[in-house]
Design goal:
Length: about 270
Amino acid sequence: MRPFIYAANWKLNKSPRETKAFFQDFMAAAGGANAKKSVVFFVPALSFQAACEATEAAAAALGMSTAPKVSARSAPALGIQNAYFETQGAFTGENSMSVAKEMGAAWVLVGHSERRTIFNETDANLAKKVEAGFAQGLKVMLCIGETLNEREAGQTMKVVETQSLAALTPTVRAKLAQAPHEFALAYEPVWAIGTGKVATPEQASEVHQFLRALLTKELGAQTAEEISILYGGSVKAENAKALGQMPGIDGFLVGGASLDPKAFQAIISA
Ligand code: PGA
């Protein structure tokens, strides 16, 4: 069965010191309560080591297991928000997925709308990153979603279909047939990100069901059923319950509300 995933996207927020303080509060507030939920934090690369140390220390204090980190029954998993598809070489300023893996990352986030729009990442570029993530033994969460203009022009399904299909290369399809739990889609309407304008549960669910049907058509029902599809865009404790009950919504990717330990806990317990 596909897991319900609570994913935090910190974006360019939190220094190593702030990261440590966050996890002390977050893990203490969670106690054992969230131990069986699948929680992942996409932290800034420069704070990754601090996140590893903080989650390990807090988990040990709470008697939780950190080995293996990817287990849903252990301390929160950690991921990186972006990395290059080459693992080493003359690529000044880039981060390596193999180094992230060595440091303890379980996940890589690929194709967030800020990467697509601000950093001009293309579908072709992102497909290479999905393949590279799998090649390095990372789980991959691929973000897709339409802009307001695209929604108003009635292009929502076409946009998310194009973005999804671009990532389903033959290599990726072969991987998904073997290990569907190592991939997740995050549907994030761009107009709902950081705006406080959340998609209605019906709007979100309509797209999620479209995506499930698309995955079924492309990958077969058995594989498609195992892939979690998360919703992201202004998720808060107040709207998490109604969204999470909708058919086809298998988790949340949370930006702003994941920066506060209590606010993120409240989403996980909603
Ligand atoms: P938000 O961000 O929750 O602040 O809207 C979500 C995201 O960008 O992943």
